[in-house]
Amino acid sequence: MSKPRRYLFISLLTVLAIAIAWYSLRSATPQIPEAIKRGYSEALEQARNGKPGAARVLYQQLARPDISDKRRLWLHAELPNYPSPQALKLADADLHHPSVAVRQAAIHSIVGLVPSGQRSLLLGPLLDDDEQAVRFSASEALLGLSPDDLGLYFGPLEQVIDEYEKTLQAQPATAHNQYQLARLHLHNAQLKEAQAALDATLQLDPGNLPALVMQIEVLDKLGQTDAAQQLLAKQLQEQPNSAYLQHALGLWLLHHDQEEFALLGLSKAVELEPDNRVYRYDLATTLHAAEELEAAQKQLQEIVQRHPADRKARVLLINYWKESGQLQNVQVLLAQLEQMNPDDPALQQGL
């Protein structure tokens, strides 16, 4: 074969190899239908409002490899309301996402999807993540778990908490990092250290209500119940229309077996912030414990009406309806749940 022909032959082979490689790469890359590409906003709106088909379109969007990190964060915020094996698979995949923010969002999704006792198997490996921020987010998600629940990750968690504490202590003092430090001290049962960190938080930010409420918790744990009660009473006297403090009062009284008075505080919190689903949920469960089933059902109905995607309230309301024998209401709520997410474990378990 002459030189020109040989060069032509080699060139043709090279072009053919490039074409085959390009075709293989294109075939291996999932082709996203245009309808799904254009459906992000609609999918997010469906998920936020608990509309039929919400889980399916939410999963479709999260499964897209081409979606931006910012959009992925918004989707993860809704995912805990739509549990299923597929939801868990998507959240688990994003624990390995290149973006730190997405990995942190996936951690929050896992917290919402997985019972606390089973969480460590999924989140424990992130205690060894290359990024410090991810290690710290994983440690926060695992705070409060028992040594048995943590299993092999008990030691790694303690190491990360120690690293977290040293990092916070080395930073210039801010209300945020002192509050985080108090949380870690409280986890380690270092009550005096937690109290000092909370004092520092409140010096920097006197109106920090979460720090005030944690300070009351620490005083309780130190056996200073009277001091805790006086601090709470003083804050409520100064801010009687604070729903946050009224809710804290209700929980504190509940903890001290004063159920009747606790209901007053919890009811006042709901009255002050009627759209707060956390306050309503706590009021509903307290009413139920006081054997006021109808009143508890009404509070959960209000949550479901205001926040149709709130699975936690919906599932509890189904249980309360069953308890009172109102099976027609149970069927209505179950049908709505199935329309939103046919793979919901509550349906599979035959709630």
Describe this structure in words.
The chain is mostly helical and 351 residues long. Among the domains are: 42-49 and 57-112, no CATH class; 160-222, Tetratricopeptide repeat domain (Serine Threonine Protein Phosphatase 5, Tetratricopeptide repeat, Alpha Horseshoe), CATH 1.25.40. It has 22 helices and no strands. The chain starts with a helix and ends with a helix.
Low-confidence stretches: 21-29
What does the largest sheet look like?
none
Task: Report strand %.
Answer: under 5%
Helix content: over 70%
* Integer-rounded radius of gyration: 26 Å
Order of helices and strands: HHHHHHHHHHHHHHHHHHHHHH
Count every beta strand, where a strand is a DSSP E run of 2 or more residues: 0
Principal-axes shape call? globular
**Oligomer class:** single chain
End-to-end Cα distance, whole Å, is 78 Å
> What's the rounded overall pLDDT mean?
90
How many helices? The count is 22
Q: Tell me the structural class.
A: mainly alpha
Keywords:
single chain, 351 residues, mainly alpha, Serine Threonine Protein Phosphatase 5, Tetratricopeptide repeat, 73% helix
